[in-house]
Amino acid sequence: MKVRKETMAEADYTNNGTVDIKGNPADKKKTGNWKSCRFILGNECCERLAYYGMSTNLVNYLGDRLNQGNVAAANNVTNWSGTCYVTPLIGAFLADSYLGRYWTIASFVIIYIVGMTLLTLSASVTGLKPSCNKDSCYPTTGQTAACFVALYMIALGTGGIKPCVSSFGADQFDETDETEREKKSSFFNWFYLSINIGALVASSVLVWIQMNVGWGWGFGVPAVVMAVAVVFFFLGSKLYRIQKPGGSPITRIVQVIVASFRKSNVQVPADKSLLYETVEEESQIQGSRKLEHTNKFKFFDKAAVKTQDDNIKGLTSPWRLCTVTQVEELKSIIRLLPVWASGIVFSTVYSQMSTMFVLQGNTMDQHLGPHFQIPSASLSLFDTLSVIFWAPVYDRIIVPYARKFTGHERGFTQLQRMGIGLVISIVSMITAGILEVVRLNFVQKNNYYDLKYIPMSIFWQVPQYFLIGCAEVFTFIGQLEFFYDQAPDAMRSLCSALSLTTVALGNYLSTLLVTIVTKITTRGGKLGWIPDNMNRGHLDYFYWLLAILSFLNFILYLWISKWFTYKKAAGHPQRD
């Protein structure tokens, strides 16, 4: 009876090393699962509403209030947006190494709110906001600086939230429990759905407020919503399962590299069971399961080969001898890098929604009925509606249907899912290019070159937004799940941040392409592909360029997918 009671007691707690807010082992019945995820999803919905409420129409704010041209405004938006997806590397490092995901989110949210408040003040308080007349605005250097300081404070604040929230949500499900593991796969779909519900309100209601009521209110409401997001997050504290930080992942990676090069002349034994690993059931890395040996990148196996020189004064130095799990951590990161790189071009396509799609829509008839006018930036709500439509359809219809044919528990492997999204993104760029050809032909035929709004409905842009939304459901959600699953347990925040940097580099690549295209196409006094008067440009050529790059990227992705080897956790079935 005593043995039976101990077994029942153990069954009440998670087996993945998570603890509750007080540091005690997490009780399955009292913590985690969907009961804690509702607070995480509510927080994410509000935080994303605040973020998109500020960023969706930012290109128009920089043009109207800071008096920037199309190229300058578009580049500033993509540079700032890119930075928002690089700073997560800072937050992820702190989360995995020292603070844990919960306390990292709690700390960085303060910086976020201060930045939102300063941005609101820079758009509403006399002296901080630019002086304007009917024709133009005249910002001072100080006013422009105040705006950009606020924006980059927000970029830093979001760096502690973005890489942690999705991983923190996934931590609420115990991977060693088959029932909870299935729920975790659904969590990523609902997580991305909550993001887009917030984005829906932002791209419709908040953009309308910015264009029709004022920028002060337009930025003030997101600041208040961000405060609500904080309340949502802390309300669920007693229900959360918290993964302990495992120490610096960078140090562990460097240790493997150093130990491997120190033993570059050492022969790796044919029997891999002879490689060094701790005898305990758990890994010596806090918060991490043991990983099984894989055959790729065999050079790094040298770090786990035991030699007589490994002991210094009776102690084993991790700079000379590493465990198999530690070596496999490094291998996992290396395997992820090609998949990560293939997401950059996709993110470049995605970034067009906040720049080129908006500039294209600025030239079209924005009326919905005789009196109501929809801002061009609000068309992104169709991307959001597309995600809101496709996320549950994928989870409830496509997955069960695909499962009948593939036999895979998720319908598609994560790599297959992301590949489908890449194909859809190519179609979205072709669709945008065709619309621009039709628009320019309409301008030429009717001599509308100097007309601010041509009599062609902005709703012709809906298909390109809808296609990108569909592509997101396949690629971005697949990417979230893939980088969480294939990351070493103690590096999940860092790998989530790594996946987010594809968005950053996608924005930077967009900036680079726009800069190069503008420089080349404006030689000899020509207007170029992307002039301030879009009716005299050739934005369609830019879309064709992106479609070609996306196609080449997909071909490369097919090779990468065939090469990839999935992570194997010791004592657990391999999942892909």
UniProtKB/TrEMBL annotation:
Keywords from the named record: Membrane, Transmembrane, Transmembrane helix, Transport
Ranges annotated as spanning the membrane: 102-121, 190-209, 215-235, 339-359, 379-399, 420-442, 462-484, 496-521, 541-560
GO cellular component, one term: membrane
Gene Ontology biological process terms from the UniProt entry: oligopeptide transport
Membrane topology: Multi-pass membrane protein
Subcellular location: Membrane
InterPro entries tied to this protein: MFS_trans_sf, POT_fam, PTR2_symporter_CS
GO-annotated molecular function: transmembrane transporter activity
Family according to the record: Belongs to the major facilitator superfamily. Proton-dependent oligopeptide transporter (POT/PTR) (TC 2.A.17) family.
Protein name: Protein NRT1/ PTR FAMILY 8.1-like isoform X1
Organism field: Populus euphratica
